[in-house]
Amino acid sequence: MAKWLSEMSKRGMGLGPAEFLDFVQGVVKKEKRKTDFINDRPSYTWYYSFMARNSHLIEKRQESSLENSRAKVTSQQLDKWFASYYKFLSELHLLDKPHRVYNADESGFSMGSKASVVIGPTKKEYPDNLPHLCGQTKKRLTGMFCANAEGEVIPPFLVYPQPKPSAYDPLIGSRKGTAVEYTEKGWMNGKTFLKFLQHFDQYASQERPVLLLIDSVSSHIDLNIFTFAKEKQIELYRLIPNATHFLQPVDNGVFGPLKKVWYKIVRKYTKENPGKSIGKENFAGKLHEAFMLFYKPLTVSSSFRSTGIHPVDRSKISENKLKPALTFQIESESSAPLNSMEENCQQSVSSSNNDISNSPVLDSSVEDNPVNSQSNNSLSGLSLLADVALTDCNNNVNKITSVNSNSSCSKYGSPSVNIESTSSISTASSFIPSTDCGDNVSVHLKEALVFPSCSKDVIQKKRKSMSDSIPDCLTSSESIRSAALKKLESVRKFAKKEKLARTKYIKEKAKQTLKEQKLQKKKMQSQ
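Structure (tokenized):
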């Protein structure tokens, strides 16, 4: 049960205390067992006891939100990407040149501050929630940062919404070399990204070629961008789509610590200037102030190492981060009941250690418990969980850990993954070691210990675009050719639409002329 809860949380489907008690209540009701629980629902006293005796396996943790698109990234995708990325760096002779490996990304900066813990009146004196004047939280300005694996950060590239101001200089107080462009909504587009490449060409290392890692957004996929980068010997290489949360160095080494300082700057500004908020006229200066407070070259260079970008190291991305992808596998593979898990691993585990093959599936060893040894055949479901509360299972857990690490049942292997090899994500069948519990675990409990998974109907096929068919190296001849063909196709479609519209206009004009002629003829006949 504890291992199931642990695996569920790793897959992004964790249960809270109330949800877990509801789950246990459902099992008890299905078994139709008589218990001392009110309405067959365990109390929180039982819950705290359960957590205490399984403290070596589970504890109460805070979740972090993860979108479905990001949760679908698999180990196979990462292995394939790292293999091709390593080969590409090797061909460019950049494996030992961190000052020529760059990563760029844009992010929105809120003009409002976040609520925090403050010193205030007691709840007895002021029972209501304390207010916080946060400014304009819905207003955001875009900043693009670019850094290399040595920890150097080039001047930022800002994108503001139109119109362009004429009464003041928006770059007052900013870092020297900062550039700003204006778009309709203040977002990055193809033309603006091309201007960023010109900005990057000016401040990046003059030793060429240089590598620029970017994400796969549509504004980065354009023929003009590819050709300009190729001319300037800027090799564009894209990261895995929807994997930038653990693969993009700038997200971890720049935006993470920078935004923590940024919210402090905004909070300080709103206190010193009540009723005012940061805008286009002073955003660049305040952003530079926040940057100077956070910037440490070692922090930035460490983000390249921690993501495995430079030096190239696939093992930096742990398999635990890829567990949510199991939810999007075929239903029959990822939501098998507990007894099917046992059958799949039975042969390999028993050959590795015959002593562990008779250990129970749930929390601890039945044989170590004198209560269980006397009534081995009569135990089932929740009674088993209650009876094993006195068991010391630390030794048993160590055995299980050693079996998992040595057994062929584990599909993860060593934490250090060879770039040239391709590993697969472990399925539900490799979750718990093989056991032979007999009748100790009820059928209802086995049926309940499953992992949710999407059916084939829920998993929708993504509409294919040009970015799905081109190589990861956006400046390769194949990518440029694909972009040229795509542009030619769009020109042809536009020409076809123009031709149809012109034909339609000519026909409508002819009908209108004929109608006017008929009316004029009728008037002449009436006269």
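Residues 99-117+131-213+233-317 form one domain. The two ends are 99 Å apart (CA to CA).
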